Amino acid sequence: MSDQPVLLQVDGPIARIVFNRPKVLNALSVAAADAFLAACKSVAADSGNRVVVIAGEGRAFMAGGDISAFEGPAEEVRMRVPTIMEPLHEGLEILAGLPQPVIASLQGAVAGAGMSIALSTDLAIAADNAIFTLAYSKLGTSPDGSSSWTLPRLVGLRKAMEIALLSDVYDAHEALRLGLVNRVVPAADLASETDMLARRLAEGPTFAFGQTKRLLRGSLDNSLHDQLAAEARGFGACIGTADFAEGVGAFLGKRQPTFKGK
What we know:
Blueprint (H helix, E strand, L loop, with lengths): L5 E6 L2 E6 L10 H16 L5 E6 L17 H24 L4 E5 L2 E3 L1 H8 L2 E5 L3 E3 L13 H9 L1 H10 L3 E2 H7 L4 E3 L4 H13 L3 H14 L4 H16 L2 H11 L10
Parallel strand pairs: 2-3, 3-4, 4-6, 5-7, 6-9
Antiparallel strand pairs: 1-2, 7-8
Helix pairs in contact: 1-2, 3-4, 4-5, 8-9
């Protein structure tokens, strides 16, 4: 196993960003945050990938940030925290803006920054041993990693307040019920189920997926009038793609479409 804190693995149309500090449950360090940003930039620059998977090596997805970085005089901590937070935030913004769907593959501890990252993705699949907690309030701090933006959009403001303020622990099935993840699978099947979902998406119309991501992510900030206009622009942009012609032709020809992501 590589000693790099984050691995970027490219398997044809699937790019996998894997947190790789299993001995410390993939706690996010400065080096890991920098490597995460570098991986996100590489994914964004590669036009060949059509889906992105975020995963963690070992028995946890991520147990949070490297708490040792938060110890010491306040002024010193204030100087250290941005070295982790800023590359994390930049990487998450890159992933949110990608046309490709981004999937979180989650097992074991999904805590703190790990839960924030998981919430930021487009789809999430969890092993039945996954445990979720936002955890920030237990450290006496407020959230980062975009969870204050994503959480109320996923579960509503009232439930988001409960999850963030109380930092309770939720098992995988409760996370599914709350809408924090899309599906729960046996831990032994997580890798294969994630791969199956990723390949299904990789065979889809990537440009249309990108338009859909943009519409859904921006919808809560738009009026109905503005959202309808955005939908019209998105549909119009899709009309010019080869995938749109293929989809229409396949429907009329009563056959399965073969999308190329173009």
